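User: Predict the complex.
Assistant: Input components as received:
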Amino acid sequence: MEPNNLPAVLELRNVSFEGNAKRSLVLADVSLTLRQGELLMVHLDRSQSARDIASMIQGLQQPRFGEVLFQESDWKGSDFERHFKMRSKIGRVFDDQAWLANLNMTENVMLASEHHGRDLNEVRAEVTELSEQLSLDPPSWERPAFVDSTRLQMYQWVRAMIGNPSLLLLERPMKAVPPLWLPKLVAAVNRLRQRGAAVLWFAGNSSEASAELIPPVAHFRLVSASLQPIADLSLAGPEATL
Amino acid sequence: MSSTSLTPTRSRGAFKDRVFWAVEFIGAQFLGRCATLASILAILWATAILAIRPTSWTRPVRQVLARQLMFTCVDAAFVGVRFGAAVGVLIIVQAALWIDALGITTDIIMPILWKAIVRELAPLLACLVVIGRSGIAISTELATMVVGGEVEVLDAQGIDPMTCLVMPRIISVVVSVFCLAIIIATSMVVTGYAIGWGMDAIRDSWSTFLDGIVSQFNSLDLLFFVPKTIIAGAFAGAICCIDGLNVRGTMTDVPRVSSRSGIRALTAVFAVSAVLSVLIYGRLLVFKIM
């Protein structure tokens, strides 16, 4: 990625990490810096899960070695108030379980924004606007169990992008979503990046590397626990399909 | 000869081993109980600190509290009335038996019944209703959320599970035990009067009967009733939340954790009641504490 002088949003310094799940990605002495407006796409194999790594980036799991910095603050110590405030600036699309089963979709989508004290009407307007941009009905009063998987996944996009997050973590965001919706997602991500958000995109399919993504964009894949840049996207991995 | 000389040495060694094992076991159990008590007190302390901070009471947290109160207290009110009525009948039957056997009047038996209801039966029954109805449900819900990854989803959005999940639930259990104890005590007294009047065991009018009860009420009753309901409720709520959040494994472990949580909460309620009795009345069994 081209060096620039914008502030770093996410830094991994010599991080070694091993998640709890069998499918978790393993990192060995990985360093990277993600600055405002940058997008880093990591192409996953079908067998790989980014959930634990995304949790490590959010300070929910600790790396074995090295440190993770978000906006130049680490996740160490017991200042949990600061950690929760830092996490409130990170939008995330989860690979797997992503919803609270006993809340309806509206409550689920707006939960974090409401909890962090944002004006309710402002949040509602933002959800409606973003839903319209994604050609999606606004979240309903149904519980997640009664919503089809495509809409559930797209509501994750809405939830991750409201509140102007500084960092966007996308774990297989196109899972269960037909490819024709990709341009909508890319446009929304581009708008967010233009406002200064950095994006870490764990792609489940090499076709997610849309040409419409505005630069700077870098593509990597994990080989032998380290991030290897991909020059030719056709080599992103034959198994990299959903 | 050698075998006879070895036997006492071996048995002495085996006895020593058994003593060491027993001491180790008792020590481990004691330390385990201390650790459990420390974690319960830590959760209760954190709950109190979070509850007095206005910033904790965001709209979602208020909604969780309202829903939990609705389920634990309001929905359980009729259960409390039924329990109180049934136990009120039992008590009045017992009272009638004592009156007949000892040849005493209702004036003598009434204060004893009133103290038994307010100081012991109503708080205990309220705890039973809340643990059976809501405590187990709380530990099941939290355990399911942990195993299903929902707690991580909350955490990842910058929402403190302690503020959003634990604190409102413990407060609602405390409030519910207190309110249900009042409902149950009232239900017991009203049912007891109705049955006693119907059986001709009580001949006083309702107002006289009520005046008699009110005149029995003293500050010691309040001193016992308030801490007993609040502390027992807080322990029950904290235990159910701790057990639910500490679940490890898969969804099949959730029922095991929930049933164990119910038993542990009940045990704690009885233990807290016993300790409070000793502390408030200053008596351990029949011996006065110096």
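The longest strand of chain A covers residues 8-18.
Let me know if you want any component modeled separately.
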